[in-house]
Amino acid sequence: QVQLVESGGGSVQAGGSLRLSCTYIGNTESSVAMAWFRQAPGAERKGVGVFYTRGGVTYYADSVNGRFAISLDNATKTLYLQMNNLKPEDTGMYYCGISDGGYWWYEEEGYKWWGQGTQVTVSS
């Protein structure tokens, strides 16, 4: 069993920055990717970006590319999402997930474990 706990959300004005953290415990040896998703009110959960654990490659949604960055600290078992130049459309609940493969990184079906989410609100 794997547990994930997100933190770092909050309220910020447009143009500001936040760094989200996702700390995980448990056996993640089968994992191939760790990702951040977000869900705006009334919308589906969508992929923000991914960190492939067996190579360190990252991919991002077009809407955040160049503003967000994902990193992984294996020593502390923490996945980070650095968010810069935030926009009101970045508002939503942010979740981290761990995938053991078999799907494109942005497909929710590929993620076996999820955190409970952390809220990000960006005001204009």
Question: Can you give keywords for this protein?
Answer:
124 residues; mainly beta; seven-stranded mixed β-sheet; four-stranded antiparallel β-sheet
Question: What Rg is obtained from the alpha carbons, in whole angstroms?
Answer: 13 Å
Sketch the topology as an H/E string, one letter per element: EEEEEEEEEEE
Beta-strand portion reads: over 45%
Number of helices: 0
User: Count the strands?
Assistant: 11
**Shape call:** globular
Please report the distance between the alpha carbons of the first and last residues: 40 Å
* Low-pLDDT residue intervals, each spanning 5 or more residues: none
Average pLDDT across residues?
96
Major β-sheet annotation: 7 strands, mixed
Main structural class: mainly beta
Instruction: Give the fraction of residues assigned to helices.
Output: under 10%
